[in-house]
Design a protein that fits this description.
The protein has 351 residues and is of the alpha+beta class. It contains 15 helices and nine strands. The chain has helices at 12-15, 23-30, 43-54, 62-66, 71-90, 93-103, 110-124, 131-137, 158-167, 171-179, 198-201, 235-251, 276-286, 293-297, 339-344, and strands at residues 144-149, 152-157, 190-191, 209-212, 255-259, 271-273, 299-307, 322-327, 333-334. The longest helix has 20 residues, at 71-90. The protein is globular and about 65 Å long.
């Protein structure tokens, strides 16, 4: 990753929109499997969990942790409390997230970081009436599985698809039947269409739909990467709008992000990979190094980002486009790193 050494500070206008973590945010974390009570939970663990659920920001003394009988439970609560205190000290979720990512030392579980992003995205899209934006917003904090069939590229929530594969949509009963190798009717998710009610796609409902990311990548290994959109409601366009909101929320900077049919830019100056695989691929192409066809075929999306005002860019890059890439792994999974867009965006240095 090529990191911008001239990282700009958020504007007061952006920070005024940021989200303070309330008790509900921390209570939802206490419901995670790593912290939720189980039949084997000891009396001390039950007391601590109930006390934190009642008052998530209450002080917890070392003696309360050491009283927990299970060592894993002690470790999990210690991690939660360190995370909770850091978020509270930061003032807002956005301030915590930006500082954590800029530190280069992400010392908390990815699950907690994803919950921070999930809360920010939910607030960011609160005024959106576009079902495709709500589904695309899931890509910023949940891993996806990508399927390519007959020229169509679809992504679905990885956890949901794995659960359906395990249970065929029949829950615990389906799991038992699967273990007994009994035949089960297949279960699949629907492709999100223009007729999907917004209420069905908000929150957890978005995970019940596949998002169409259909495109075609050419074999041009120069500076040309071709895509062919086949649907009027494009998941890539919806993701572009979400990423525009993401940048604006943190920096109060207006940008236009557009899915691209290709890069054909002899003065290609700056790019940002939105995941590990696209970062490595774009770096190689920018250096003029050849890329294997299978790597090119794993490129899911390509975007062009332009600033509404070139004054908000670094002076040496003012007016030039920023190219964004999105790719799936060799196992056809995809996990965005939305922090890359914040860390590597070539913003003008503070005055």
């Amino acid at each position: 990753m090529r990191t911008d050494p001239h990282a700009a500070d958020p504007s007061p206008e952006a920070a005024s929109r940021w989200l303070v973590a309330d008790d509900g945010f921390f209570r939802r974390l206490l419901d995670l499997p790593q912290l939720a009570l189980v039949a084997e939970s000891c009396r001390a663990e039950r007391a601590l969990h109930e006390a934190l659920f009642e008052a998530p920001l209450r002080p917890v003394h070392a003696a309360e942790l050491s009283a927990l009988a299970d060592a894993d439970a002690r470790d999990n609560y210690a991690v939660f409390l360190r995370f909770r205190d850091a978020v509270a000290a930061s003032g807002t979720l956005e301030a915590y997230y930006l500082a954590l990512m800029r530190s280069g030392n992400v010392d908390v579980p990815a699950l907690f970081v994803d919950r921070v992003v999930e809360a920010i995205v939910a607030a960011m899209l609160a005024d959106s009436t576009d079902a495709f934006e709500h589904r695309a917003g899931e890509l910023l904090h949940r891993a996806q599985r990508v399927t390519v069939s007959d020229g169509q590229v679809l992504c679905g929530d990885l956890e949901t698809l794995d659960h359906l594969h395990e249970t065929a949509g029949f829950g615990d009963l389906g799991r038992l039947l699967r273990e007994a190798q009994a035949p089960l009717r297949g279960s699949s998710l629907r492709v999100l269409g223009a007729d999907a009610p917004l209420s069905h796609v908000q929150g957890d409902g978005a995970r019940s739909f596949l998002l169409d990311l259909t495109h075609e990548v050419s074999n041009d290994l120069g500076h040309g990467l071709s895509f062919t959109m086949t649907r009027s409601h494009s998941g890539l366009r919806a993701l572009a709008r979400v990423l525009e909101r993401w940048v604006h929320r943190f920096f109060d900077v207006a940008t236009t992000i557009t899915p691209m049919p290709k890069i054909d830019d002899a003065a290609w100056s700056w790019h940002i990979g939105l995941d590990i695989d696209s970062t490595a691929l774009l770096n190689d192409l920018w250096r003029g190094e050849p890329a294997e066809p299978d790597r090119m075929q794993r490129l899911v999306g390509l975007f062009r980002l332009t600033f509404t005002s070139s004054d908000e860019m670094r002076p040496d890059l003012a007016g030039k486009p920023v190219y964004l890439g999105l790719a799936m792994s060799t196992t056809h999974t995809m996990k965005l790193k939305p922090q890359n867009l914040l860390l590597d965006l070539p913003l003008a240095p503070p005055m």
